[in-house]
Specification:
Blueprint (H helix, E strand, L loop, with lengths): L4 E2 L4 H6 L4 E2 L3 E6 L5 H14 L4 E5 L4 H8 L9 E5 L12 H7 L3 E2 L20 H14 L4 E5 L1 H8 L5 H14 L3 E7 L8 H5 L2 E10 L2 E11 L9 E2 L1 E3 L2 E3 L14 H4 L7 H5 L17 H4 L18
Parallel strand pairs: 3-8, 3-9, 4-5, 4-7, 7-8
Antiparallel strand pairs: 1-2, 5-6, 9-10, 10-11, 12-13
Length: about 325
């Protein structure tokens, strides 16, 4: 049975995902700071808008005016993407009724957002919580049916608005709401250099991980599909670049993957000893066809958090 796919707009990544994301499911894009999570998420929304789909960007890390300016360097037309300002009001963490939040948080076209940051209401701060954001999205879907939604970022949403004791139930409800609405969703997640899978990784239907590290040539970037429920996918790391026009992931030769039984695909690296790990070499740069097999012992903890040197494409990360 052929299942409907939502292309990300990045050819090499769509090839890794066997054509794109399964429609109507929530996914996460994870990585350390500066790996390109927001940029990938915007690629996904713009691909939908170009195909006549309604796309919604929920801004939590940065106010919409900064989001628009961040993407200006790529020369993208953002008029087809709607934006909901979910950034917190200054020094206010009290719960606010949904009706008060909705009167202040109007959904508008991202390309038409002004240069000023939204001011805190003179009536008093109106903060967004996970519950109010969930209800705002549900209310908006009653007016307009969105095919694609991005939450940028889930990490900030957790830190600002979720009590640790309620984290699993709250996130489970949030993911369930996105699924019930039928939207194909991407939620960005910041992870440290060495990390264990979080609750969001468990609840999502798939995870795309962005990596960066230094080798002898400078800063290198890579991308992997960590999991993808209900679909075949390429789990090997591919090279990734943030260019002047956005993210580029190479496609394989002729779009063909190596089959089971090929020498390279069957190679099993020896398990290193603790002493070997200390002296292990840097991750090898992906070959020109964009594919590389990375032993788990080398990929763990190598996502890096180095500052992006000048000349790597710039723009939001």
């Amino acid at each position: 049975m052929i299942r409907e796919r939502a292309r990300t707009g990045i050819k090499g990544l769509d090839e890794m995902l066997d054509g794109g994301l399964l429609v109507g499911r929530p996914y996460i894009v994870s990585g350390t700071s500066g790996t390109g999570k927001s940029t990938l998420a915007m690629h996904f929304l713009l691909e939908g808008a170009a195909n006549g789909e309604r796309a919604l960007y929920v801004a939590i890390d940065e106010p919409p005016n900064e989001v628009r300016l961040n993407f200006a360097k790529f020369g993208w037309n953002l008029d087809g993407v709607s934006v909901l300002d979910g950034t917190p009001d200054v020094l206010n963490y009290d719960k606010t009724p949904v009706r008060d939040v909705s009167s202040e948080r109007k959904i508008v076209s991202l390309g038409k957002v002004g240069d000023a940051i939204r001011r805190t209401s003179e009536k008093g701060p109106t903060d967004v919580t996970v519950s109010t954001l969930q209800e705002l999205i549900k209310q908006e879907f009653k007016e307009r049916k969105y095919a694609r939604v991005v939450i940028d970022s889930l990490t900030s949403l957790k830190h600002f608005y979720i009590r640790t004791s309620e984290e699993f139930a709250t996130l489970q409800s949030f993911f369930r709401t996105l699924s019930d609405l039928g939207a194909t969703s991407i939620l960005t997640v910041h992870v440290p250099e060495v990390t264990r899978p979080g609750i969001e990784s468990q609840l999502s239907r798939g995870e795309i991980r962005l990596h960066k590290w230094f080798d002898g040539r400078g800063l290198m970037r890579g991308i992997t599909v960590e999991k993808y429920r209900g679909s075949s996918h390429d789990s090997r790391m591919r090279h990734m670049k943030i260019a002047q026009t956005g993210i580029v992931v190479p496609v394989s030769d002729g779009g063909k993957r190596k089959k089971k039984g090929d020498a390279d695909s069957e190679r099993t690296p020896e398990r290193p000893t603790p002493d070997d790990k200390k002296a292990e070499p840097p991750l090898p740069p992906p070959p020109e066809n964009g594919e590389v097999d990375i032993p788990p012992s080398q990929s763990a903890g190598r996502t890096g958090s180095a500052v992006d040197p000048k000349g790597d494409g710039g723009g939001p990360q």
